[in-house]
Structures are given as structure tokens and as C-alpha cells.
Amino acid sequence: MNDQRGWLAVELTRRGVSRREFVRFCAAMASALALPDAAAAQIAQALRKAEKPVLLWLEFQDCAGNTESFLRASRPTAAEVVLDTLSIDYHETIMAAAGHQDRWLHHGELDE
Questions:
Q1: pTM, whole model, 2 decimals?
Q2: How far is Cα 112 from Cα 56, in angstroms, rounded to an integer?
């Protein structure tokens, strides 16, 4: 993305959130946390500079039901989350395979 505004500003604009609504949200968050008036501007500035949150999804020994629910979601879709909201750096189920298999044949037998 070549936009100098940052990913959050671009995403908010794409979703129809105005700058005024964004600043109002920051003021509401500062008020909800009982912070001083100047905190709203600090929250807005921090959010403008923020990078996409990084997600490392480790399944370990679960049944992958969480992944199934995530992939079947419709609001937001998995594609919107992966492409617009989060930086999913690792998820073994949805990641594409990489590298090559030089030791194993298709049926799991060793290549000799």
C-alpha cells in the first residue's frame, strides 16, 4: 500500500467512517477510561501510527473447530480479516505449503 495515511485510516475511509466519527470514538474511549481531555488526541495519534496487529495462531492438539468457525464467518469474512484487519503471520491450516518434498513419495514411503 503506497498510501501515506496508514492502514487504519485507509480502512476506516473504505468503511465510510469519517474523521469526525473517529475523533468522537477516541473521545468516548478516553471518557470511558476516565482519562483527561487531552487523552483523546493522544489515543487518536497512537491509533494513526499503529501497525496491523500480528496474529500467530497455534492450534496444538485442538480439533480445529475454531479455525472452521473463523473460515465460515460472514461478517467480517475470513478474507477481510486476513487482508484488511490483521497480519496473520502463522496459521498452519490456512497457510499455503512451501518448499518441496524430496524425501517422501505420495504414499508416505521413503524415496530411496
A1: 0.46
A2: 36
